[in-house]
Amino acid sequence: MLKLTNGHGSMFPLLLSCLCFLNSFGFVVCGFTSSFIRTQWPAKDIPLDNEVFAVPKGYNAPQQVHITQGDYDGKAVIISWITFEEPGSNKVLYSSVEHQYGHTAEAKVLNYTYFNYKSGYIHHCLVDGLEYNAKYYYKIGLGDITREFWFQTPPKVDPDSSYKFGIIGDLGQTFNSLSTLDHHMKSGGQAVLYVGDLSYADRYQNNDGTRWDSWGRFVERSVAFQAWIWSAGNHEIEYRPDLGEPTPFKAYLHRYATPYMASKSSSPMWYAIRRASAHIIVLSSYSPFVKYTPQWLWLRSELKRVDREETPWLIVIMHSPMYNSNEAHYMEGESMRAVFEKWFVRHRVDLVFAGHVHAYERSYRISNVNYNVTNGDRFPVPDKSAPVYITVGDGGNQEGLAGRFLSTQPEYSAFREASYGHSTLELKNRTHAFYQWNRNDDGVLVPTDSVVFLNQYW
Ligand SMILES: [Fe+2]
């Protein structure tokens, strides 16, 4: 069901291992462990006084501007920003004509405290009723201190609407993170599927919220102009009862809105959107999800709502990978795999993207749905109905690379490498998608793992 189109070029001499075997479908499968490692800059956050975190000039200027999809089908956006001195204007002026803002929408404003940190005024504004495939300009702020941005709405939901996603995970705010962000912005990705772990503010004393703010300013260069589709990671939990902060995901949920109610979900961390030819389902690895929980019930319903005649590409994103052969976070995704994998196979999910492990890995189409605690069946097997699992937690955060893969590459693992990078997925039509993992190679984007995926439904 998948075809290597680019091989791995000059990678071959560098391969540590190559496993080839004849699987039960009678075709040869090879797995590659690349010894190629690129970690150009130290795993340290960029100092706060660096220009990449610059606060916009002017009294109470809006900062940390970001947008995400605001409805089920891509005709709305949620525009968010933060002001610090006072709430300021809660209005978004917008138009399809530059500098002629004929429409207004109003934001909700909220804030929070976390131990001794006090957030700015966080604005979330739903702008809906937009046209498909159109460029919109928007302006926020007040008086002389305003800022202007633009975004492009996706094409209409249609099985042959082409669209290019970037996939980024575990980004953080180091110079490696900056390289990943820069490469994404050059790769032509029109929106981002973000697979969790954003700012790593929880690595600082008392989970210093100023590092949430610096991250917001850091990624604004991309996310003010295109939708990032958010999923939560473990660094967003911030459960610190010792600080008097027992509410998980407090900063994340205040700062990053999602359109969860549009997909009839009761949790902002579990939701679905349709964008161009894709139906994207967002799960949280750190929420209750076993049988009978609200999340389990919601996912069961959402999978039944998927219409592959309209959105042939069915994509799931989460943080903790279900299949991972790195020593880091080994088998942490097993509980979710045990609950949901059979649904993914039954509904012929095309791709499952995860982060968490700071390295890259892609699987073949395999499943372990026959796992049985009484009869001993316990091995993943090739399965034409199963998704491809891709781990792309290599955005570049301060924890560094996960450089130690298990010494024997599992048969299900197609390609793995411990370098920083990001992926792109270009849906061409209802049958074909071009996928690429792009390594940060001494600051240069190098397409390293390229695959043409055939749709699981068509
Ligand atoms: Fe993580």
Automatic annotation (TrEMBL):
Q: Which UniProt keywords apply?
A: Glycoprotein, Hydrolase, Iron, Metal-binding, Signal, Zinc
Keyword check for Acetylation, yes or no: no
Which reactions fall under this protein's catalytic activity?
a phosphate monoester + H2O = an alcohol + phosphate
- Reading the lineage from the top rank, the first entry is Eukaryota
- What range(s) does the Purple acid phosphatase C-terminal domain occupy? 386-444
According to the record, the segments passing through the membrane are none
Q: Which GO terms describe its molecular function?
A: acid phosphatase activity; metal ion binding
Cite the EC number.
3.1.3.2
The enzyme class is: hydrolase
Q: Which residues form the Calcineurin-like phosphoesterase domain?
A: 164-360
What range(s) does the Purple acid phosphatase N-terminal domain occupy?
Answer: 62-153
In the record, the note on similarity to other proteins reads: Belongs to the metallophosphoesterase superfamily. Purple acid phosphatase family.
Task: Return the protein name.
Answer: Purple acid phosphatase
